[in-house]
Amino acid sequence: MAVEKKLRIGVIGCGRIAQAHLAAIENLKDEADLIATADADEKRAREAKQRFGARFFTSRYKDILNHAEIDAVIITLPNHLHHPIALQAAMAKKHILVEKPIALNTKQALEMVDEAKRNGMTLMVGQSRRFSDAVFDLQKHIPEIGKLFRIQISFLVNFPSPPTDWWKRSEEAGGLVILLQGSHSIDSILTWTKKMPRQVCAFSSRQNTQWEGEDEADILLSFDQGELASMHLSLSTSPEIHEAILVGTKGVMRLTEYSTGKPFRFGYHLDLNGKRIYSAEQTPSNYTLQLREFIDAIRGSRTPIASGEEVLSTMRVLDAVRLSEREKRVVSIEES
């Protein structure tokens, strides 16, 4: 279904990450219209409506799914709710932008992809770290460093306490840091290598007892031609470090992300063989570029970047990571 006028959007979930998506809608007000905000906490839904100028708010997400004027929904709910709400949204003939991780496991994600296809709806996943000028530049320069044989990502941040209540419960978060941050880092590695790993090994621990799930994790991927990728994930590191190092047969690239001090706003440095080739605050925000891709894909009746179907690969690797973590062994990707 092509949409030529403004895309009319309902946001389901008005907590922490929703603020970044709501701001993106506001930034694209010539292309998108915020119709409604929904949250089980009616106060939060009302505050989001007032701050971002929605037409109405509700404590019942089905009010958005049943609203005939709404073309698309953005689902910014706890991880365990992505799957059931996305299925209902697809059946209600709404296009869907769902926060990462797409779901708790590949089985759920595949059901979401199939339901969206069955109803002719676009399903896109909020892999926001794909959407920055620095990352676009990195991808263009990969051929200059030759054949990739090593990628190392450190995603080390600091949350002294849970920023939102559902982070406390492993059942709702699907663990914790592996899905929260690993979903970004694995997605980046698969995008840059353009292939799936053969084997996965993961270790995790918990430093902070305020939540049930893991808040530290190291993940190693091995590929068919000897390439290696490693991820180091943390919720307890201060000062924070978020960088990716790509090593090829002809050189090295290093991408560094830093917080600008504004909520969900980042800046980037990109170095190619020791020379800085990019350094700037990302403007417009990653979430704004992501939403523009969602809108353009719907208007153009094309598959978006980070479509649900594409991100199934990321979910398969995450499943293998969780299996390795649980059973404390190397896992073949075929087992996931």
Question: What would you say this structure looks like, in words?
Answer:
The protein has helices at residues 18-27, 42-52, 61-65, 82-91, 106-118, 133-141, 170-173, 177-180, 182-193, 286-299, 308-327, and strands spanning 7-12, 32-38, 56-58, 72-75, 95-99, 123-126, 148-158, 199-205, 216-222, 228-234, 236-248, 251-259, 266-272, 275-281, 331-332. It is α/β, with parallel strands linked by helices. The protein folds into two domains: 7-128 and 287-304, 3-Layer(aba) Sandwich (Rossmann fold); 130-283 and 317-335, Dihydrodipicolinate Reductase, domain 2 (2-Layer Sandwich). The strands form two sheets. A nine-stranded mixed β-sheet has the order 14-13-12-11-7-10-9-8-15. Strands 3-2-1-4-5-6 form a six-stranded parallel β-sheet, sandwiched between helices. The radius of gyration is 19 Å and the shape is globular. The model has no long low-confidence stretch (mean pLDDT 97).
Mean pLDDT comes to 97
According to CATH, what is the topology of the largest domain?
A: Dihydrodipicolinate Reductase, domain 2
Architecture (CATH level 2) name of the largest domain: 2-Layer Sandwich
Structural class: alpha/beta
Task: Specify the number of helices.
Answer: 11
**Count of separate structural domains:** 2
Query: Uncertain regions: pLDDT < 50 for 5+ in a row?
Result: none
CATH class of the largest domain: Alpha Beta
SSE string: EHEHEHEHEHEHEHHHEEEEEEEHHE
Q: Work out the radius of gyration.
A: 19 Å
What is the first-to-last residue Cα distance? 34 Å
What's the overall geometry? globular
Strand content: 25-35%
> What is the CATH superfamily label of the largest domain?
Dihydrodipicolinate Reductase, domain 2
Estimate the helix proportion, in percent: 25-40%
Largest sheet: 9 strands, mixed
Strand arrangement, largest sheet? 14-13-12-11-7-10-9-8-15
Secondary structure tally: strands: 15
